Amino acid sequence: MAVAKPKHEYDIHETPGVCGGYPCVGNTRIPVRTIVTRYRATGSVASVAEALPQLTIAQIEEALAYYGEFSARVDEDIETNARAWEELRSRPQPLPLR
Q1: Which of 22, 47, 94, 97 could form a disulfide with 77 if both were Cys (CB 3.0 to 4.6 A apart)?
Q2: Distance between CA 28 and CA 18 in Å, rounded?
Q3: Helix, strand, or coil (residue 24)
Q4: Digits of tens for pLDDT over the chain (98 positions)?
Q5: Residue 53: phi, psi to the nearest 5?
Q6: What's this model's pTM, rounded to 2 decimal places?
């Protein structure tokens, strides 16, 4: 399957073995999904920047632009992560040690 050529050269990378191989910002391990979900919850780039102070406003805006162009890939990551979280939450909790 051919990968679509981006309209813009993004500093977003998919690295096997890092965050499930899904898109991350630059050379960080911060997934684009994290930025997108925070932005969806708040509607504010400033709120994302406050939650992720290691990123610049430009990196956050670039991740959101990347999502605009490759939303299917990021949505896949969001859905995969949500399923994994639900599976973990459904497991019985171990009894506390005494």
Answers
A1: 22
A2: 9
A3: strand
A4: 455 555 668 899 999 999 999 999 999 999 999 999 999 999 999 999 999 999 999 999 999 999 999 999 999 999 999 999 898 888 888 878 87
A5: -65, -15
A6: 0.82
Joined together, the tokens standing for residue 50 give: 């406050």
Contact 23, 77 (CB under 8 A): yes
**Sequence ranges of the domains in the chain:** 12-87
Cβ burial 15-54 (10 Å sphere, 16+ → b, else e): eeeebbebbbbeeeebbbbbbbbbbeeeeeeeebbeebee
Tokens of 22: 């899904």
CA angle 85/3/32 to nearest 5° reads 35
